Amino acid sequence: MRSFWGLIPRYILKNKKRIFFMAVGIVLSITLISSLSIMVEALQKSSKDRIVNQAGGTYDIRFETRNYVRAQGLKTDSLVEKVSMVTVFGKYQVPNTNYELELGGYESNITELLNFKLIEGKFPSGGNEIALESWILDALPQKYKVGDKIRLSYTIEYVDSKGKYMPVNMESEFLLVGTFQHVANGFLNKNTAKAYLTKEFVEATAANKNFHYNGYLTVIPKYSIGEGLSQLSSTNVYSDLDFLPSSIKSFMLIAVDVMNLVTKIIFVIIGIVASVIIYNIFNVCISERTKDFGMLRAIGASPRKIKALVLGEGLLLGAIFIPLGILIGNLAIKAIIMVSSGYKDFNGVFSIPKEGVTASVIVGFLSILGGTYSSARKASQISPMEAITSNNNLKLKGRKIKKGIQSTKGIRKKASFTTNMAFLNVSRNKKRFTTTVVSLSITIIMFFTVNYLITNSDPINSFKKNFQGDFTLSTFLTEPGYGLTQDNIDKLNSIDGVKSVSKQKFFRTNVEFPKEGITQEGMDHIKEFSRRSYRLREDFEKGKYQFLTNVEGYVDQDLMRLKEGLLEGAIDLDKMKEEPIAIIIENLNYNNYTSLQVGSKLKIPYIRYDNKGNAGEKTQEVTIGAIVRADMLKNVDPTISSTIILNEKAMEKYLSIEEFQRANILLDKDADYLKVESEIKEITKLARAMEVKSFKEELKTIKKENLERSLIMYSFVSIVAVVSIINLINIMYMNVILRKREVAMMRALGLGSDEVRSMIKTEGMLYGISASMVGSILGILLTYGIFKVGRKVLMAGMTWEFPVMEVIAIFTVTIFITFIASVLPSRKLFTSSIVDSIRGIE
């Protein structure tokens, strides 16, 4: 040996079995950290894409106005990052269909705010160029392709000097230069396609007209959507603008923020798990080599060199196996993501997030340094003779053994000798026992957390519960011609194979609530809500307190069903048909905004259309006749806190809503599904903006999305579990090796091999029982905490109940695993003679 430092590779090559266990522990621990970083990146990307696709774009706030000059001020406002305006030009009704084209004059930067994806050609740049949403081409009277000329007859609406709407019919020829796709899954009006014209063309075609303008903007990253909305709407500079936040984006961003917080906590926990695992492995391995260090001390090696030798060995192993762990973690989790999603692009398969690499390196080396330095310091402080003659256990001190015996005295009175020895061994090695139980407990806690989140966010279960039939028909529009008439309902009922058709009337509006029926929390919410627009703020200052509320019209059968959840009042069907008497379901989504009484008055604004189709806003006062429990509603919108229910006849009489906005169709078992679907679409094709959803198609899509998310999350928990199990086997194996001389003495005194195995099995079960208890208690408390904090912001309809079956499963599986982990290494004790074991000969 030419150099003292040559001992490092020499020891590594000499002790291949020990190094193997150490390497496995390091690799799996680092795999855990790097796979978490990949998972977080995948979930964040998935969430971002989902927000854009649901909201229809990246914008934070949408605004409407007729004051073009005031709106232009937003482009220089220091609060606004991006803004784009759309001139609402006109509408073209596709003949003999329920489809229409919405012509708008767009600014060139609209694609930065709306989810417009070019399919073919280009977006218009000037003149009479036009681009259409690709799906509308199949509905047009002629088959057009990019490069063709299209002649459209359309209606534009502007306001004259007296504020009166002036519809004008026009006809123009356009050059089709491109097709695009606009994904906006959160909006139900799927029958209106966008037609993209340039702003300059619209202004030149209809000069000096007072048009209606829509706009989209993002606030600077320093502010949230709510803060940006509050500041913009609080100034009189924009008093002519109505600001509407992207409620879908706002709600989903809250969920994303919660998810990011949870993942950061998990990152810290995983870092602790990895540190504990690496520390355990190094601590045990170094403790086992106490005799080797004693010999080095005897031939002149200083304590400092002993520590340097051990640290050097740890750093060398880290330099080899930490990068390997990062690579394996990256490949493992990305392989799972690709398999689950069907994604076949391998270009980024070796791309690893910098955060994951940094965390892996820091946690890995700090854990190695901690695990090696602690043990090396202890080994370097004892005398060479003590180290050579030791039994490799640096913790065998009489006071601690006595204390351990006394702490388990009550349990051991009626226990066997081997059980007593198991308790004694656990008491003598408290640090090793504690760190192992901690790593196992964290795995259990993570299982509880992930299982709870997936169960509550299970879209399949939620979909099956909320999808009221084999087909659903729905629209948000109450304008005549957009809903289902009674004749439509009768035709749907007459389709061969249809068992039943349930129907509802529906619209959403800002309902005025009485001050005495509003809680302080509710008043704070209204104050915040009123900052969305100048008009809402003005209403609040005048004492008009409004909540965004669903107003629904039920038939008699559905009203009778609500009696099961009656809290106060009575549901009188006859009165509800003739008088404006309503049922209220308040404080949905765990809010505490209102405390209404039977007899309270509510003011519902609604739109009344005259014979010419002109709209005018009116208000109807209704009286609360009954209060019903929140769980009587099947499908709860997370953005609302109350639902008002009227008889559908009263909706027609007092709110001028004649058509039905929702219908649920249930089929017979032997119905021809495709044939029924075709007939439903044929009947509803003239009910404009009525969306038809098929249970089978929706379920298929949701299952795919759920599979991807569940596989990613459960695969991560599986990696955690595998790491912890291998760590447990490592620990149990090292425990056996360290106590080889001790067990040999017991065998020499007459202890049988079956008794030795029984003692070790009992120790393993003690690990399992302790980890199960600690992990289950903390896991249950954590899931309850998530429920209390996240039920308002994380997901709608979130529930919690004591997880009895999960606890039973955890105890069973954990105890079984620890039992097996203790059986496997116990065989090592009987591979050598008692004499050789006592002498310490391997």
From TrEMBL:
It is a multi-pass membrane protein. The keyword Iron does not apply. Pfam families: FtsX. It comes from the Bacteria. The chain crosses the membrane at residues 20-40, 265-287, 308-337, 357-376, 433-454, 711-738, 766-787, 807-824. InterPro entries: ABC3_permease_C (IPR003838), Macrolide_Exporter_MacB (IPR050250). Keywords: Cell membrane, Membrane, Transmembrane, Transmembrane helix. It is found in: Cell membrane. Its main location: membrane. Residues 265-384, 715-833 form the ABC3 transporter permease C-terminal domain. Belongs to the ABC-4 integral membrane protein family. This is ABC-type antimicrobial peptide transport system permease subunit. It comes from Clostridium punense.
